[in-house]
Structures are given as C-alpha cells and as structure tokens.
Amino acid sequence: MFGVPHQTIRERVSGHVNHNIAVVGVAPILSLDEVRILVDNVETLAQHGYKLTNERLKTPTGDLVFSFERKITNKPMSNNWLYRFL
C-alpha cells in the first residue's frame, strides 16, 4: 500500500511501534531547545541590523554542532539542513 512494506504496517497496527515517539528518517542534529536558542539569536541579530547570509548561518552552526561532537568534521551545515531549519 503506497509503497509501505507490509511488515511496517503490521508492526504499526499491532502496537509494536509507539506512535508518540516513532521517528521517520534521520534524527535531528539539534534538539528543539537548541533550535529555539538558535532562532532567538538569529532574531536578535536581525533586530540589531545584522544581516545573516546562508553561509553566516551554516558555518557557525556547523562549528557548534562539531563542538557538541555530533558531527565528525568541522564543516558548515548543509543546504538541506538550512532549508529544513528555515
């Protein structure tokens, strides 16, 4: 059905999967609290007239995530991350 494997449907219907905590895809690299802090900082910078480009957001966030040891390389965040964040 819609390309979903039958075993996945059986597990969901039978109650083997907790619908409240089930995650589709990859787990987020930042927690909701960390994202809120990042959003607050971006808004504060914008209120003070500091314009953020995509690179000015991706690079320091990549450094931060690397310092949290959630990335193995110290590279800027990807465009995919940026578009999901925005």
The CA-CA distance between the termini, in Å, is: 32 Å
Shape: elongated
Estimate the mean pLDDT confidence: 86
What Rg, in angstroms, do the CA atoms define?
18 Å
Strand residue percentage: under 5%
By helix and strand content, what is the structural category? mainly alpha
Percent in helix: 40-55%
**Tally of contiguous helical segments:** 4
- Total strands: 0
Provide an overview of this structure:
This protein is mostly helical. It has a domain at 27-85. It contains 4 helices and no strands. The longest helix is centred in the middle third of the chain and has 16 residues, at 32-47. The two termini are 32 Å apart.
Concise description?
By secondary structure, the protein is mainly alpha-helical. Helices cover 53% and strands 0% of the residues.
Name some characteristics of this structure:
0% strand, 53% helix, elongated, mainly alpha, 4 helices, 86 residues
